[in-house]
Structures are given as structure tokens and as C-alpha cells.
Specification:
The chain is of the alpha/beta class. It has 15 helices and 9 strands. The C terminus is likely disordered.
């Protein structure tokens, strides 16, 4: 068995993968007894890239069309590999997919200061909307939806339910001022004003998102009550009754967690309420990011553990009164949304689906 075959064989505790390597006979890895997939490498360098830096090599090879899943999708492959070593059952063999020591060192020397934060956001969000329209709802909610009936519910309804869920947790009242940190295309701010009569200030570092958000507020005739600014939250000097931040905390970076919560505490009125919605990870804090996602999707990102978030918020004397894990909602989102996209030929779509499946922690629910 080839070296890459031995690595895959070590990872799989259930199911099997047949590898087709250039110039060699197909070889099947894994114990069987589950799903089977066939993966073809179009050139010999794919195996070398995977062995040198598994996570980066895997993502780039799939993105470039050099790693082809012949009888399934990227979602199927991630479920087979990651699901074989779930965190709650030990997950020791995940260490095979190391993240690269050199990148850890380089990253430790960086911080998301005002200039770099703006650059990182532009890399991901100042893009043509045609890409996002392929997998987001019409309101462009770029975080996991809230699924109450996954077998029959549409993405549009699930995202509407997510916004309603957030509005309820915020306990909004007419006349309140709300800060939306990382407001995206403006959908959350517009919704909160519509259902609760609150005034909302949305801040973003994306010029493209700012333009769209302002156009939407003007079209709805609510520009006096829902305003958007191109500004780093750290530069604000106002007081708000409520703060909401959905899908922005991933960009803050672990080095800035204390700064983030201290600033939010400063911006909140004494009886204020803050809701933070973020992608997270199970177990201890990540020492380094996934190298593919850091390079191609979210430069400067960090996925926090629950303990990181609560500890940092406590240091700012914020009281964590409600913690909710939406892991299975994220699983449903990926299952319904990415399956069709992963079959498209576009390099940018393969890049997005690869990272999104990884960020979604695609593993089967415990016990299944």
C-alpha cells in the first residue's frame, strides 16, 4: 500500500475509500462496513501535497480539480473521514491532519489590527454577489439557519426563524438603540427594526456590503432608523441598549478577544444585553487555524471554543446568561445547501464548499 494509502487507512474506523493514483493500481483503504467512496488523483503531486501539509494540500487539490471524488461529494468525503474520529469519542487520529508548524509561527506574529482587519474583510466579502447568491437566502444571511423542520423547511424560512430566534433572545423594545457589529448586507438590522421598532446602527469593514445595506435601507424607507457605517467597532464611542453580532467574531482573532469584549462592555448601557453568534469548535482552543481556510477564505480567523468565549467575556465582567449550541443546525445547513454546489465546476465554488464543509464540523450526530 502507498504511503498516502496508509495514512487514509489509519484515519478510517468505518467505511472505505478506493484511491486511484496515476500509474498505479487502485487501492482500497479502511475496514469497510460503511459508506464507500472512490477518490482519484489526477497527478502524482497530489499525494505529495497531502503528505506535506494534509489540510492545505487537501483543500487546494480539491479546489484545483486535481483531487476528484468520483462517486460522491466533498460533503460525503468529509463525513467519512472526520466522522470516523469524532471529538466526543477521542478523535486522536485527527492529529494526522496537522496544520503546519511554520504557519503556526507566522500566524503568531500577526494580529488583526485596524489595517489588517480591513484587508482581511475585503478579501472575503468585497466579492461579486453572484457567488453568494448561489448558496445564501435572498436576505443574504451568512451564518447557519435555525431549522425547526429540516425535512420540509426551506432555507428562506429557516433563516427567517433564525432572525426571529435572535430577536426574541435580545428582548427588544420600541425606542431602543441596537448596534449590529459586522452587519453584512444589512438583513439582520432591517429585520430587527421591522419587528421591534428599534433604531439600529450596523458597522462593517466591507465597502461592497455597506453599499448594498444602505441601498436596502433606502428602498425600505427606513434610512432614518437603520443606518450603516464603514467603521471598525473599536472606533465607536456611543452607548447602546443592545448589541448583536452574527458571524463576525470568527474574524476577531484570539489575541483580540479581551479587547472585543471590553469594548462591547463599554458600548453597552448598564442594563444592556448582547447576543454573540459565532462558529465554534469542540474541546480546547485551537492553537492554529486550518491552513486552507486561513489562506483562501478567512484570513486571520480563529474558531473559538465555548470556554474561550465565556472566559474572555467574564474578564470584561459580562454575565453569560444563555449559551446555545447550534451544531446540528449547521449540519443541516451544510447537508441541504452544499450538496448541489459541490458538483459545480467552478474553482471558486470548490474553494468555498471545501472550507465551509470543514468549518461546519461535518460529522454524524452522536449515536447515528
Amino acid at each position: 500500500m502507498s504511503l498516502i494509502g496508509k495514512m487514509v487507512d489509519k484515519l478510517l474506523t468505518k467505511g472505505s475509500i478506493t484511491l486511484k493514483l496515476p500509474g498505479k493500481k487502485p487501492e482500497t483503504c479502511g475496514p469497510g462496513g460503511g459508506k464507500h467512496l472512490t477518490v482519484r488523483f489526477t497527478d502524482r503531486k497530489v499525494a505529495f501535497d497531502l503528505l506535506k501539509n494534509p489540510r492545505l494540500g487537501f483543500g487546494e487539490s480539491y479546489m484545483d480539480g486535481r483531487l476528484i471524488i468520483e462517486d460522491g461529494t466533498i460533503l460525503d468525503l468529509m463525513r467519512l473521514i472526520v466522522g470516523a474520529n469524532p471529538w466526543e469519542r477521542g478523535g486522536e487520529d485527527r492529529r494526522t491532519f496537522g496544520k503546519g508548524k511554520i504557519r503556526k509561527l507566522v500566524r503568531s506574529l500577526k494580529s488583526n489590527n485596524l489595517k489588517r482587519a480591513r484587508k482581511n474583510v475585503a478579501h472575503h466579502y468585497d466579492l461579486n454577489d453572484e457567488l453568494y447568491e448561489l448558496f445564501l437566502d435572498q436576505d443574504k444571511q451568512y451564518s447557519c439557519a435555525y431549522w425547526t423542520d429540516p425535512d420540509h423547511e426551506t432555507l428562506e424560512q429557516a433563516q427567517l426563524d433564525k432572525k426571529a430566534h435572535i430577536a426574541a433572545k435580545l428582548a427588544l423594545g420600541p425606542g431602543q438603540r441596537v448596534l449590529d457589529i459586522g452587519c453584512g448586507w444589512g438583513g439582520m438590522a432591517l429585520y430587527l427594526h421591522k419587528v421591534a421598532g428599534v433604531d439600529v446602527l450596523g458597522v462593517t469593514l466591507s465597502e461592497h456590503q455597506l453599499k448594498i445595506a444602505r441601498e436596502r435601507a433606502a428602498a425600505a424607507g427606513v434610512s432614518d432608523h437603520v443606518k450603516f457605517e464603514l467603521k471598525d467597532y473599536r472606533l465607536l464611542d456611543e452607548k447602546f441598549d443592545r448589541i448583536v453580532s452574527v458571524g463576525m467574531f470568527e474574524h476577531v482573532g484570539a489575541q483580540h478577544y479581551d479587547e472585543f469584549f471590553a469594548k462591547c462592555r463599554d458600548l453597552l448601557k448598564p442594563d444592556g444585553v448582547m447576543l454573540l453568534h459565532t462558529i465554534g469548535k469542540l474541546g480546547e482552543a485551537c492553537r492554529s487555524p486550518d491552513p486552507f481556510t486561513d489562506k483562501w477564505i478567512f484570513p486571520g480567523y480563529h474558531l473559538p471554543s465555548v470556554s474561550e468565549v465565556t472566559a474572555a467575556s467574564e474578564r470584561a465582567r459580562l454575565i453569560a446568561s444563555d449559551v446555545e449550541n447550534l451544531r446540528l443546525h449547521m449540519l443541516t445547513r451544510c447537508s441541504t445547501g452544499w450538496r448541489g454546489l459541490s458538483r459545480r465546476a467552478s474553482r471558486s465554488l470548490r474553494c468555498t464548499t471545501s472550507a465551509s464543509c470543514a468549518c461546519g464540523n461535518i460529522i454524524s450526530p452522536a449515536g447515528s
